[in-house]
Amino acid sequence: MIITKYSLIGAILQCYPESKECFQNMGMQCVSCPSSGRETLEQACREHSQDVDVLVDSLNRFVNG
Q: So where are the chain's domains?
């Protein structure tokens, strides 16, 4: 799976539940937010004032080794 800033948080967590660590390492508690299932990484990072590129890189490293 290739993750982009347009990927949905819910889809990522459904396929890779352990990836929640990547979110938590950036101070994002998206795994517990009810709206996260329909939110893109870009939207969540904007909401939490985080760099989407850093999160995308972290998730791709986690998912793809």
A: 9-64
